[in-house]
Specification:
Blueprint (H helix, E strand, L loop, with lengths): L1 H37 L8 H15 L4 H13 L9 H4 L7 H8 L1 H9 L7 H9 L20 H15 L11 H10 L7 H10 L4
C-alpha cells in the first residue's frame, strides 16, 4: 500500500513537471512572438517586455492569483498581435494618422483577437487583454465600447501600463514625456480612461524618475 501510494505520488509529480515544462515553453514562445511583432516597428522595441513586467507587478498588487498573473503577462506579450494586419506605412508613419488610417490602426485589436482564437488553448484572460486593452472606463474606447467593470480586469490593468510606457517613449511624431508628466496624465485620466482603483495601485508602484 505504501509502495502504491509512493508510486502514485511519483506519477503526480512527474505530471506536474511535464505541465510546468509545457507552460514554460508556451510562455517563452509567446514572448518571442511578441518581440518579433514589435520588431516591425523599431520605435516600440522593448515595449512588450516593459509592459509585461509592469502589468505583472500591478496585477500582483491588486491581488491577482499566480495563474491570473501568468495569463496577464501572456496577454501583454500578444496585445499587438493584430498589427500583423496593419501596413508598415501606417505603423511607421512619422506624422499624425489620418482618420482613415486611424480606423485601420484601431482594427488591430479585432484582428489580433481573431488570430489569437486560432492559437489552441489560449485562456480567456489572454484573449481579454488582446481585445479589450483599448477600452476606456467611460465607455468611449474600442472595439466594443465597454465601460467600467464590464471591461475585464486584466485589460484595465494592462491599459494603464501600456499608456504609461507609450508616453515615456520617444516616437517620430512626439518627444518622450518625463516620468512626472506621464504620471500626471495617468492621474488626470483616472475615471475617464482608466479604472480609478487600478490607477491608485499604479501610483503606489510607479517607477521612480
Amino acid at each position: 500500500m505504501v509502495e502504491l501510494t509512493a508510486l502514485r505520488l511519483e506519477h503526480v509529480l512527474a505530471l506536474r513537471r511535464a505541465v510546468d515544462a509545457v507552460r514554460s515553453t508556451l510562455e517563452a514562445s509567446l514572448l518571442t512572438l511578441g518581440v518579433v511583432l514589435e520588431a516591425r516597428d523599431f520605435e516600440t522595441q522593448g515595449h512588450t517586455q516593459r509592459t509585461a513586467t509592469m502589468a505583472t507587478s500591478l496585477g500582483d498588487a491588486l491581488g491577482l492569483t499566480d495563474r491570473e498573473l501568468e495569463y496577464l503577462r501572456q496577454g501583454a506579450y500578444l496585445h499587438d498581435l493584430g498589427k500583423l494586419g496593419v501596413s508598415d506605412a501606417i505603423l511607421r508613419k512619422p506624422s499624425k494618422l489620418t482618420p482613415q488610417e486611424w480606423t485601420i490602426m484601431q482594427s488591430h485589436v479585432q484582428q489580433g483577437y481573431d488570430l489569437a482564437l486560432r492559437i489552441p488553448g489560449l485562456p480567456q484572460d489572454v484573449l481579454n487583454v488582446i481585445r479589450s486593452h483599448h477600452e476606456r472606463w467611460d465607455g468611449s474606447g474600442y472595439p466594443d465600447q465597454l465601460a467600467g467593470t464590464d471591461i475585464p480586469l486584466v485589460a484595465r490593468i494592462f491599459a494603464v501600463c501600456d499608456v504609461y510606457d507609450a508616453l515615456i517613449s520617444e516616437r517620430p511624431y512626439k518627444r518622450a514625456w518625463s516620468h512626472e508628466e506621464a504620471i500626471s496624465e495617468i492621474e488626470r485620466e483616472s475615471g475617464r480612461h482608466f479604472d480609478p482603483a487600478v490607477v491608485r495601485a499604479f501610483l503606489r508602484l510607479a517607477p521612480t524618475a
